[in-house]
Amino acid sequence: MLPTIDEIVSNFELLDEWEERYRYIIELGRLMEPLPQEAYNDLNKVQGCASQVWLQTDLTMSSNDGPVLHLRGDSDAHIVRGLVALLISLYNGKTPAEALSTDALALFKELGLSEHLTPQRSNGVRSMVERIRRDAQAAVAAP
User: Among residues 8, 46, 49, 125, which one is catalytic?
Assistant: First the structure.
């Protein structure tokens, strides 16, 4: 089970060395809910990532707020898998409208990840965020 985004930010701030932070990101990837085998398909594959990344977005009904996003994901690269986990912690359980107003790139900047990721990984993160936002936008537009 993934920690909340607030717990992740708090834990991240306790780690002084970037090597420790990378290990923590990798550990987050290990805590993710497994992606079912049938979800490894072209529909869920995120384009624009150097590593292979799959994101599955489902809408589930919440008791109060209507539909909320339920995300699962995976990657063939340990650090990228951790970045997927970070995004899932940020967006999971939000309504589509809340997801559209969430600025993941600002969080990555706040955590210092923007400066410590390779340009390829940064592009991959942007591709993942765009994919989540596209899914949220489709949910908002659906009747």
Answer: 49
pTM of the complete model: 0.94
pLDDT one-digit tens code per residue, 12-56: 999 999 999 999 999 999 999 899 999 999 999 999 888 999 999
Per-position DSSP letters for the chain, written without gaps between them: -PPPHHHHHHHHHH--SHHHHHHHHHHHHHHSPPPPGGG-STTTBPTT-SS-EEEEEEEEEETTTEEEEEEEEEESSHHHHHHHHHHHHHHTT--HHHHHT--HHHHHHHTTHHHHS-HHHHHHHHHHHHHHHHHHHHHHH--
* 49 annotated active-site: yes
Q: Which architecture characterizes domain 5-141 according to CATH?
A: Alpha-Beta Complex (3.90)
Q: Where are the domains of the chain?
A: 5-141
